[in-house]
Amino acid sequence: MTAERPDPAVNEVLVASGRPRAHADRTFALEEAAKAHALGESSGFVGKLVPIPGRDPGARS
User: Fold this and answer.
1) Which is higher by pLDDT, 1 or 61?
2) Which of 11, 16, 37, 55 is most solvent-facing, going by the fewest CB within 10 Å?
3) For the chain, where are the E strands, in sequence order?
């Protein structure tokens, strides 16, 4: 699955309004960094992969 790139004009409007948003596909405990990196190298996600310090490994996001 490949995500479509947003229209640059839409990005300009969002940035000008001060409300840019990023979609977080998943969050990971810092201890799961290798798992997050492997997923980032695949095409199995859309959005950002976010490490969360202090989060319990294995917890669902």
Assistant:
1) 61
2) 16
3) 24-29, 48-52
